[in-house]
Amino acid sequence: MTNSSELKVKKIMNGTVIDHIPSGRALDILKMVKITGREGNVVLIAMNVESRKLGRKDIIKIENRYLLKDELNLIALIAPNATINIVKNYDVIEKVKVELPEKFEGILKCQNPSCITNYERESLSSKFLVEDKVKLTLRCFYCDRLMLISDILKQLT
Amino acid sequence: MFNLHGKDVVSILDFNRELIEDVFNAAYIMEKYARGVGLNLLKGKIMATLFFEPSTRTRLSFESAMYRLGGSVIGFTSAEASSVAKGETLSDTIKTVENYCDCIVLRHPAEGAAKLAAELANVPVINAGSGAQEHPTQALLDIYTIKRELGRVDGLEIGIVGDLKYGRTVHSLVYALSLFNVNLSFVSPPGLRLRDEIEEDLRRKGIEFKYYEDIEKIIPNLDVIYVVRIQKERFPDPAEYLRVKGSYKITSSLISKAKSNCIILHPLPRVDEISLDVDSRPQAKYFIQTYYGLCMRMGLLSMILANKEDLKQLFYSSK
Ligand SMILES: [Zn+2]
Question: Is residue B4 part of a domain?
Fold first, then answer.
């Protein structure tokens, strides 16, 4: 299934297509999943293309790279409507919608220096609960400190 | 009355109005036993007080409560905690100590420490202060004092004066008061206002509150004047501490402008935010507050630890 906007970007043989990214967020997503381009894989980025759903959207196509569950959760934070297409031999063999989980464990770091998760000796992984799915606010399970989307972006990009 | 049996007390957010009233009922029953005779309700039970940070009053209050209930106490204070600091993690300390006791009372400088301890321990954990985050038993005793001294909590004008940002007692108190119908006024220097997440929580709960920089303006309206210390150790910059230290102070002449039946509370220890000449005023209730605190902690400990049959018997015989 192809539409006109997708045709603007060349097809990839094997890899991942991240579609329905809010316009202007593609580069943030690449940073979040730590794709710099220096890996040597083909990365195609389309920004501000027309979209029936979003008006304008970004698309990323990455050859030979598949996303982990944790990475999908992160993408959900800034692109809650994104769809992930797994491509094999130019065909989409799997299509998944990203989904914001109830909690994030071990990916983000609590910003509160007095938080128990930042006591080095405890070697405790962080845990955040999603407080607001619309505003994208997280709350540290341990110290209750809020983490806003701007803080999350600062930390991950 | 059994709602806290075997449970942790980590955050005041885990309490609803009904549970708070249950604790107050238990505290009231304990008033009879808090001086002199005591009880055998917790005979054979051991409470461990793990104080990684100094707090003589809170620790003595918990220990006294446990002894009055017939139980025993083990534990360490910050001095001995330095040996813990040799390298043992809080997690390991908790997993060790829980085998020696029936409940753990924890004071720790890290925020979230009590939550972690409760997650790990099989015995109930009571938060006796976790960094600048929360101090739930202080909030309970504060409101119990208000109830005992003024006969009610709903409908009161409550002013909280001082360091609202770093004061852990304030955070728990504000959350607990949000379960009642009170009007809140906050008096603090602009730099020491409530943290964003607490303000956010209050707004979400529809609690109305106002900020003032000058206590004189609102003191005639207040039923409760709750004064908090500015804690030097919470300031990253000592110069900032010196600058704001004297910016609010309760004096006898200021109290002349207050209602004659208002009450002045303070979590103690005070430094100089309430002048000594206020002590002889009838509105000064900060010392009797510590007595109510003992009763409240006795009530809390018995709800968590007592044999259900014994507890039931005590409650019904006291009615
Ligand atoms: Zn935290």
Answer: no
Q: What is the 3-state secondary structure (H, E, C) of B44-107?
A: CCEEEEEECCCCHHHHHHHHHHHHHCCCEEEEECHHHHHHHCCCCCHHHHHHHHHHHCCEEEEE
Considering its fold, how many domains does chain B have in total? 2
Ligand 1 centre and the CA of B214: distance in Å?
A: 33
Q: Is the dihedral of CA B83, B86, B90, B95 positive or negative?
A: negative
Q: pTM of this prediction?
A: 0.87
One domain for residues B69 and B119: yes
Checking if the pLDDT of B113 tops 90, the result is yes
In a domain, B7, yes or no: no
pLDDT bin (cut points 50, 70, 90) of residue B82 is low
Q: Write the CB contacts of B308 (distance below 8 Å, at least 6 apart in sequence).
A: B2, B5
Q: What is the ipTM of this complex?
A: 0.85
Q: How remote is the CA of residue B134 from the centroid of ligand 1, in Å?
A: 13
Q: Are residues B269 and B300 in the same domain?
A: no
pLDDT-derived band at B79 (thresholds 50, 70, 90) equals low
| Residue A19 main-chain phi, psi, to 5 deg | -115, 165
Same domain assignment for residues B143 and B130: no
Q: Which of B110, B113, B133 sits opposite A144 (nearest CB)?
A: B133
pLDDT interval class at A157 (50, 70, 90): confident
Q: Are B80 and B48 in contact (CB under 8 A)?
A: no
Helix (H) or strand (E) holding B298: helix B288-305
All residues of chain B having their beta carbon less than 8 Å from the beta carbon of residue A119 are 90, 110
Rounded Cα distance between A116 and A113, Å, is: 8
**What does the alpha-carbon distance between residue B63 and residue B298 come to, in Å, rounded to a whole number?**
10
Question: Is B107 among the catalytic positions?
Answer: yes
Specify whether B267 is located in the same domain as B303: no
- Count residue pairs from A and B with Cβ separation < 8 A: 54
Give the residue carrying structure tokens 């609690």. Answer: B207
Q: How many CB atoms lie within 10 A of CB A3?
A: 12
Binary contact (B112, A115; C-beta < 8 A): yes
Contact A143 B200 (CB under 8 A): no
Searching chain B, which residue's CA lies closest to the CA of residue A137?
Answer: B197
Other beta carbons within 10 angstroms of residue B265's beta carbon come to 27
